[in-house]
Amino acid sequence: MLTIQESFARDDGPRLYVCSTPIGNLEDVSQRLLAVLREADVVAAEDTRHTRKLLARYDIHPPRLVSCHEHNETDRLRDLESWFAQGWRVALVSDAGTPLVSDPGARLVTHALALGVPVIPVPGPSAVLAALVAAGLPGQPFTFAGFLPRARRDRQALFSQWRTWPGTIVCYEAPHRLRDALADLAEVLPTARVTLAKELTKRHETFVRGTALEVAEWAREADVRGEFVLVVDPGPARSQAQAAGGYAAEAALGHAQAGRAHEAGSITLGHVDEREDAWAAAVAEVRRRVGAGEAHAAAVREVAREYGLPRRALYQATLGAGE
Predict the structure, then answer these.
(1) Distance between CA atoms of 76 and 189, rounded to whole angstroms?
(2) Helix or strand or coil: residue 172?
(3) Are the C-beta atoms of 321 and 286 separated by less than 8 Å?
(4) Residue 61 exposed, middle or buried by CB count within 10 Å (0-12, 13-18, 19+)
(5) Are residues 33 and 122 in contact, defined by beta-carbon separation less than 8 angstroms?
(6) For the chain, what is the largest distance between any 2 Cα atoms, rounded to a whole number of angstroms?
(7) By C-alpha distance, which of 29, 13, 181, 164 is closest to 90?
(8) How much is the pLDDT for 25?
């Protein structure tokens, strides 16, 4: 059924505000957020203890501050009907960032819409976007994958899908599972470009950038306490997978052609693992040359010739080298 919401056609009546709150630094608030919190009849918070700190910082005292989390959402749906029947304005907030983005609140939004109540976003801080824009990796297209699976088998299956994923992936991981997750990523996609963002907007904000293998090695010895966002560009691994697929297909030409290719100094068909190693080395060599000041196109041309690799694919795999 088609519906049209004109959020501000009326000044009165019930509405549900979905409010983004700071992800660490309490100064990351908008004037609009403060106004909404001050005018709300109810502030529904994932954790009232956490939200009280924000409200106290800006001297805001809502008539009602109630908890709303995954364990009491059913009860809150009934409360929501009562609040809306009285024409109240409800501000939904999570502990940090935007509700519904790996946080509770989806059922409240769906229920409000079913009741014909406007749902109005109050944009603001987002750990996903903050990590993405500072990662130094392609920003478009990108996929937000939420929290990584807990089981190793499931993580590795997901990472295998990323080998041919079109774009950058952003996800969350708990600190106590971070080392294992990065080790799995390094095993499946060792050459993928990775940025690990820690404690965004806080005093100890840290970015760790490198290949999946390098970041996994760093995590083995580092202090991994805090909140983490993982940004992954499978670009190099994607190009290697495409190239490996091409080499494997070429093997179907038969042993006679393979022998002629070998005699001519071309690639030895069927040795896909060796070619993947060569591809990784070629990507690293292009990055080294560009980092030393050589033009990207020239570096790709020379390295592709040395390694006997397709120049266009190598060019795409190393876009952004030296940045």
Answers:
(1) 43
(2) strand
(3) yes
(4) exposed
(5) yes
(6) 85
(7) 13
(8) 94
Q: Which of 217, 162, 214 is nearest to 191 (CA)?
A: 214
Q: What domains does the chain contain, in order, with CATH numbers?
A: 15-125 (3.40.1010.10), 128-233 (3.30.950.10), 237-317 (no CATH)
Angle at the Cα of 162 from the Cα atoms of 159 and 167, rounded to 5 degrees: 145
Rounded distance between C-alpha atoms, residue 238 and residue 194, angstroms: 14
pLDDT in tens, 233-248: 998 666 555 554 444 4
Tokens of 131: 């990590």
DSSP tally for the chain: helices H, then strands E: 13, 10
**Cis before 62 (ω within 30):** no
The amino acid at 145: A
Residue where the block lists tokens 């952004």? 320
Summarize pLDDT for 135-180 with one digit per residue, the tens: 999 999 999 999 999 999 999 999 999 998 889 999 999 999 999 9
Residue 87 DSSP code: T
Q: Which residues pair with 89 in a beta bridge?
A: 15
Cα–Cα distance between 124 and 36 in angstroms, integer? 13
In angstroms, the CA 277 to CA 194 distance is 19
